[in-house]
From TrEMBL:
Protein name per its UniProtKB record: FAD-binding PCMH-type domain-containing protein
Domain FAD-binding PCMH-type: 45-217
Source organism per UniProt: Imshaugia aleurites
Annotated SUPFAM superfamilies: FAD-binding/transporter-associated domain-like (SSF56176)
Family: Belongs to the oxygen-dependent FAD-linked oxidoreductase family.
An MF annotation (GO) of this entry: FAD binding
PROSITE patterns in the cross-refs: FAD_PCMH (PS51387)
InterPro entries, sorted: FAD-bd_PCMH, FAD-bd_PCMH-like_sf, FAD-bd_PCMH_sub2, FAD-linked_Oxidoreductase, Oxid_FAD_bind_N
Keywords: FAD, Flavoprotein, Oxidoreductase
Origin organism lineage: Eukaryota, Fungi, Dikarya, Ascomycota, Pezizomycotina
Amino acid sequence: MPFSSTDTQITKCGHLAQLLGPKVSFPNSTTYLATEKAYWSLQEAELLPTCIVVPSTAEDVSTTVSTIAGNEGCPFAIKGAGHAPQAGAANIESGVTIDMTGLASVTVNGDKSVASVGAGASWLDVYLYLDDLGVAVAGGRNAAVGVGGLTLGGGISYFAPRQGWACDNVVNFEIVLASGAIVNANATARPDLWRALKGGSNNFGIVTRFDLQTFSQGGLWGGALAQSINSSDEVFKAFANIASAPQYDPYASLVTSLSFNSTNQQWSISHLATYTKPVADPPVFNELLAIEPQLQNTLGFTNLSTLTNEPGLPTQLNALFYTATYGVSATLLAKILEISNETLYSINSQVPSGTFWGLAFEPLPTQVTKYGPLKGGNSLGTTPADGNGVILLLSAFWASPSANDIVQQTARTIMQNAAEAAQEMGLLREFVYLNYANQVQEPIASYGREDVARLRAAARRYDPSGVFQRQVPGGFKVLV
Ligand SMILES: Cc1cc2nc3c(=O)[nH]c(=O)nc-3n(C[C@H](O)[C@H](O)[C@H](O)COP(=O)(O)OP(=O)(O)OC[C@H]3O[C@@H](n4cnc5c(N)ncnc54)[C@H](O)[C@@H]3O)c2cc1C
């Protein structure tokens, strides 16, 4: 009988258990189940690896990679905080999942200018530590999200208009390469890898530590603001005026979300409006705040760890992300709402009740994209030459796996029709944000020819046998 992949995986997991002891866990053990429970989406939690490794040092990660790399019968996955929704992004059915949450320490250097963060930390770990020191870093707006996935995919933070993408602020990556070597990538050591990792996701190795540039930060002003769906046209106008302002206010951050509940067929509007300085009712939000009625308003003074520590989903649900980038236009946003509404009403009878949909619009002004080139370059291909933009995140949540196909199909229809509308208006942009991308999208290809060439060269140089292309099937691949 031929030696099967399953035999290889069992053998490799056995070797890993000999080398790393209780850091390797097997199905039904408490540690194994704790990792499985930590995935944000049900699709990820349903995948069952042969074993899970929870390393607590970079050396443990190196031992793990050295043991399994090059053995194609033993695929593996790299998990940060497990918030990428698509099945297989950070987990694997039969194979080894490396759960990085055992490396979650946060420290700062002597002058507090650099925070060194274990790759498995959540943003809450980081903000709780830094808030007390009067400094911050550009990271996630939801505390439970992982430093690893968010930063390697770009990373939109409340501070984006002051600091650029989260990845622009990584001064050094400590990374385990396919060879098992633990190396640094920064402006002077391996600068090609440093740049590749800023948007290149899990294609080059397993990052074990992020050294992040800090900046002074006191309190902020922000919270949630809900408005009636009947105000959508006024809301889109106010949003577009903020997103396309000739001088974008660098302290302003805004996410405008329209949510649809399939059970009651109702749309609602809410904003996450934040000013990263302790200024109440800053003029940048005047037009938005003047729209009545306000159905909820929690805007007020806060700090980063409190603001980001919003409640998660009540239970693990199936989840879907899909994204696109457009030029700024209130007319286009209204058109996207109309397209979504028509599509959702027409398929409603096929989707079980209790499916929730969200359209989240986020400004991507040149005030954000200008920082990439100023901070050593990233891989994302976003430049001020593109002008001000808007990123759309379409999301869906549902309980029953029987609806997986129809929800995916519906999301695709909405996004294809929205793309056509944007194209007709000359507002469709190429950029597909990796951290919001659906599994059928190709975010890395959207970075453009030059960045893709650089990413491929770095992958060939640092992983010549293609371990992170083939043996780590999850996530979005550079495809050397
Ligand atoms: C509730 C919620 C809020 C969000 N808020 C924001 C936000 O404010 N801003 C924003 O930009 N995005 C946001 N996102 C999107 C988020 O950036 C992505 O989901 C991201 O992938 C999450 O990172 P993670 O480490 O939690 O995920 P994981 O699913 O663990 O990892 C995602 C990908 O990164 C890879 N990866 C993770 N760690 C490493 C590592 N150490 N080395 C190599 N590869 C690694 C994984 O293999 C996987 O392919 C949010 C998502 C959710 C669900």
